[in-house]
Amino acid sequence: MKYSTVSLIASALFTTERTFSSYLPSPSQVAKDAANASTIQWTSDVKGKAFDRFVVIWLENTDFDQAAEQPDMAWVASQGITLTNYWALTHPSEPNYMASIGGDYFSLDDDRFISLPKNVSTVAELLDDKGVSFGTYQEHLPYTGFLGFNYSNQETFANDYVRKHNPFALYDSYTSNSTRLSVMKNFTGFEKDLADEKLPQYVIITPNMTNDAHDTNIKVAGKWTRDFITPLLKNDYFMNNTLVLITFDENETYGEQNTVFSILLGGVIPDDLKGTTDNTFYNHYTQIASAEANWDLYHLGRNDVTANIWSSLADAVGVTNKEVDTRFLVNNETYHGYLYDNKIALPAPNVSATNIVGNSILPAISSVWADEYSAQVKANYFTSTTTLVTAGTLTNAVSLYEDTAQTSS
C-alpha cells in the first residue's frame, strides 16, 4: 500500500470514530465498590505568589443580573470582589467544566458521557509536577472515586450527583490514576479534611443538582452558597492565604452574551476591597492560568497560555493582563472540532508557546505531543498560538482528509 506525503500527514491528523460507554452501576454494585474504595488525605504547603490555596465553587445556569440581584448572593458579594467581566466559554454545562481544568472543551456541544484520552493533560499534572496538592469535593458522590454517569437521590430519585459537573472525571489522564481518584471525594470528605486541617491547595467544589440551581433556581442556590461559605469565612485554617472563586458554569439565556456572576473572596482579599468590583476580562481558562502564575507552573499548551490571570496576582508577578473587546463576543456555541466531528483530529497542544509569566509547556506533555504538533502546524490545521480551528484551517484539514481517501491504494 502506498501513501502520498499529504496522506501521511492526514493520517496523523484524523482519528477513527470515537465512542464512549456510559457507566451506570446498579445500587448493589455501588455498595460493593464503595466498600473497596480508597480515600486519602493529601495536603501540601507550596507557597504561592499571591495565595496558597485556591478553591472554586461551581453553580449553574443563571444569568448575571439574576444572580447579582438575589439577596443571599449579594451578601456573599459584599464579602469579596465581584468580577463584572467573567465569561463562560460555551453551552451547555459539561464543556465549561471540561475546559476549566484542561484548557479546551474540544468542541463538545452537549452533556453526554465523554472520556478524553490519556494523552490529554489537565491542571492536575501541572500541580503534581510542583508538589501542589489538589482534589475535588462533589456533593453526594456515593463514594470516593465514583465514575458513574450520575447518582440519584436514593429516596426521592431526584437528580443529585452528576458526572458532567465533575471536571476531573472527564479525563482518562486523571481517572486512570488510583491516587488521583482517592482525592475525588464527597462533602463528608470535605468536612473531615477541613476538621483535620488536611485540605489540598487546589480545590474544586460542586454542590448537587438542587443546591447549584440547575434543577431549582437562584434563590435556592443563593441560600445554599451563603450557608456554605459563612462558616468557612470564620474558619482561620480555611481562610489563611486562601482565594475562593464562586462562579457559574454558564448563563441561562443562550441568546445573550455568556457572562456569569462571579466573586473572589477569602483570606487574601483585603478589607478595603470587599464589596468592590473588577472589570478585567476573565473566563474559565483564567483558573488554570492563575494557578500556573501563582505557583510558577509549566503550562498545558492550550487556551491557558493566552488567558488573563487574577488582577492581584498579575500585580504580584509583574505582568499586564490584556484588554479584550467584548462588543461582539457571545460564547454561545461550540467550534467545529474533535468532539463535534469524528473526522477532526484531537488538537495538539502548542509545545512552543510560553504562558503569561514566560513559562514553557510541561516537558511530559511536549514529549508526547511534539511530533503531532509539528504535523498539525505543517498542515496549517491550527493557528500557531491557539488550538482553535479557524474557518480557513478547517477547510485545509478537511481537504487533507479527502485527499487521503483519493491517494491511498
UniProtKB/TrEMBL annotation:
Keyword Hydrolase: yes
Top-level taxon in the UniProt lineage: Eukaryota
Organism: Pichia membranifaciens NRRL Y-2026
Record keywords, A-Z: Hydrolase
GO biological process annotation, one example: phospholipid catabolic process
Stored Pfam families: Phosphoesterase (PF04185)
Protein name stated in the entry: acid phosphatase
UniProt cross-references to InterPro entries, sorted A to Z: Alkaline_phosphatase_core_sf (IPR017850), Phosphoesterase (IPR007312)
EC nos: 3.1.3.2
UniProt entry tagged with the keyword Hydrolase: yes
GO molecular function, one term: acid phosphatase activity
Catalytic activity: a phosphate monoester + H2O = an alcohol + phosphate
Transmembrane segments: none
